[in-house]
Fold each of these.
Amino acid sequence: MDAVAQFLPLILIFAIMYFLLIRPQQKKLKEHQKMVEALRRGDQVVTQGGLIGKVSKVKDDNEIEVELSENVRVRVVKSTIAQVLTKTEPAEAK
């Protein structure tokens, strides 16, 4: 019984750390992954470097092409997109 009483504070500390730090971080990571997966042509995005541009092409699983200004396009890794400013609506099938 004494052994359980000694480990009880450690277990409580771990539980508190889980609910205050680990769980919110995992939730934030999942939301970021959903945002990145939903990127499409025409979305206005902000990169982690602070560059604002419009998605001109979604190349493959982890890369997109962002147009920063007229005729200035850069290739960006999808995971470095920090925020989507404006979202374009998908084209309706005719």
Amino acid sequence: MYRGRFAPSPTGPLHAGSLVAALASWLDARAHGGVWLLRIEDVDTPRCVPGAERLILQQLAACGLVADEPPWRQSERGPAYADALQQLVAAGRAYPCACTRRDIDKALAARGVVHERFAERVYPGTCRGGLHGRPARAWRLRADGRVRWVDRRLGEAVQDVGAEVGDFVLKRADGLWAYQLAVVVDDAAQGITDVVRGEDLADNTPRQILLQHALGLPRPRYLHTPLVLGDDGHKLSKQNGAQALDLADPLAALRAAGAVLGLPPLAAEDVHDWLAAAVPAWAGIIAAFDERLRKRP
């Protein structure tokens, strides 16, 4: 059975880009006759804003998007992440790291690599051979090999994770669990079959596939949705000052999100009528995605 999810971080209210991802994941679940879940990704506790979770739930409800099961919270899932890390350590796939960000930048600079804004900081593997007396700060996954996967919208993709990302963090120097480990463990525990999320997260997919393989977990299908861009041309986000979603007219907000997803104008008098019309419209869009994938060389 199809099981999808929307996983917001409670670092502030939803914005227009958040609603696009939430709507797409809800529509995809409904178009497949499946279940839609909500996961609060509050593992990065210092960035979480008091009251944000409650506000996010209210915003979703105003748009008619209500989860089929009680929400999960990553802040309550620490023991599961610890078990996964120990499994990786026992298998020789994870190792402790003593490097600071400055250490990494210095090691990269020594190779003639200058870190650019928004670019991936490729870990040079300094601690792969041991800490050499330095105290451990974080834990990393040995990221070897190329990963090939197919996105339902974007098509086939390949990434050499070791060369393009390097060994990535599983547990941070501040003791918090890293996003990559938490999302993989939780997707498996919730039985998620399909991940529908923003296109900005597509480059996380190969890392998560590596972790799924290392932990013996199933791989969901992936669909990455178009992004809403800010005035500066970058993804609309809380970090670049995205305004809270204006829900004075929830129907108008849904229409705008639907337009980003490629939905046609839909006749509706209220939110529930619009969502009812949007489900078959989305089914037609994803059918076209599937047909294109079937025809690929």
